[in-house]
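Design a sequence for this backbone.
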């Protein structure tokens, strides 16, 4: 493999996307959250290795008990057979300074063409993500710079970008996994027809509450209970009020009204205690014309010993002046790792669509 640059690389990627339906290569192996970090064993305690641990293995505190962002396995190249096995893995990071005298350093130089290698030496480029190079559904990241110190610093400086690229690939995988067998189009179609928006539903979510602007659905399994709800507000001409506090207050108000426990005095609320390692984090991004706020954290049951992770999406459609929430929750005390399900929720929520032609002129004005 050689990393090409400019127009030729874009052209080849475009050709691959066009022909991907005819790609009969096997799928890459491994867990979608497992990342093999290929470095010379003498460098596993280097500044670069530590920067990789702090970036890709950092602790996620928006799930109960915390979990690493990715599970990292450090390995080196000892033979061609071992390299071939690495090339079959789902997520692989190759990391070494450009002039490192090791099998990994030589392999990285073999990946790069002369133009790209020169950019590395001049400090202009250091990270090269490549998808589906040797196997389908594969993410390979090549990290290299002029020295161990320089490479470590570049990784730290671009942590968010590096993580976002890998997460984007993972969320695509989860979307395929969640909906590949069967999905309930009729539930999405009902929301679209009656309320002017929709989100894709996994095969075994069951409708629960259906009110004028609130709908809930549950996927109950004895050891892994999951539920989600949607809500909308019309005639929202100004969203200057929309911030982290409003999102939490609104989801708590709706949960207190509709998401109950065994007794009426038991209801779901956001659990936000940063001093106890339980933060709630919101980030915003654009999804087409929609303004999106994604909130991650944990919930607890008031007057009940229950809790778990949640993912909340707040969408604003400026074309129709409508505001929406889609909220996913899990209660699974017997399931040790919650992060894979949170990532599923994050993939599912991104399937949201709003009808740009929806006319809410006959609805009640927003409060």
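Sequence:
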């Amino acid at each position: 493999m050689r990393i090409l640059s400019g127009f030729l690389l874009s052209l080849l990627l475009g050709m691959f996307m066009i022909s991907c339906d005819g790609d009969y290569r096997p799928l890459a192996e491994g867990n979608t959250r497992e990342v093999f970090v290929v470095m010379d064993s003498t460098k596993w305690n280097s500044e670069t290795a530590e920067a990789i641990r702090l970036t890709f293995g950092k602790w996620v505190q928006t799930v109960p008990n915390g979990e690493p962002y990715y599970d990292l396995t450090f390995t080196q190249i000892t033979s061609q057979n071992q390299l071939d096995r690495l090339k079959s893995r789902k997520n692989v990071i190759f990391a070494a300074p450009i002039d490192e005298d090791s099998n990994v350093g030589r392999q990285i130089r073999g990946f790069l063409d002369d133009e790209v290698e020169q950019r590395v030496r001049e400090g202009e480029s250091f990270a090269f993500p490549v998808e589906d190079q040797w196997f389908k559904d594969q993410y390979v990241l090549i990290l290299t710079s002029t020295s161990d110190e320089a490479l470590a610093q570049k990784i730290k400086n671009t942590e968010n970008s590096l993580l976002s690229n890998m997460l984007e690939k993972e969320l695509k995988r989860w979307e395929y996994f969640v909906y590949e067998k069967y999905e309930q189009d009729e539930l999405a179609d009902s929301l679209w027809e009656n309320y002017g928006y929709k989100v894709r539903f996994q095969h075994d979510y069951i409708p629960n509450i259906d009110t004028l602007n609130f709908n809930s659905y549950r996927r109950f399994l004895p050891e892994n209970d999951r539920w989600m709800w949607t809500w909308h507000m019309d005639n929202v001409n100004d969203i200057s009020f929309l911030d982290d506090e409003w999102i939490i207050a609104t989801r708590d108000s709706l949960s207190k009204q509709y998401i109950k426990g065994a007794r009426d005095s038991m209801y779901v609320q956001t659990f936000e205690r940063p001093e106890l390692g339980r933060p709630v984090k919101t980030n915003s991004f654009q999804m087409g014309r929609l303004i999106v706020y994604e909130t991650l954290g944990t919930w607890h049951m008031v007057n009940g010993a229950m809790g778990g992770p949640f993912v909340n999406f707040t969408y604003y459609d400026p074309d129709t002046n409508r505001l929406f929430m889609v909220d996913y929750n899990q209660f699974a005390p017997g399931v040790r790792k919650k992060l894979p399900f949170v990532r599923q929720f994050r993939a599912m929520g991104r399937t949201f669509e709003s009808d740009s032609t929806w006319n809410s002129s006959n609805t009640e004005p927003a409060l």
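The chain has ten helices and 17 strands.
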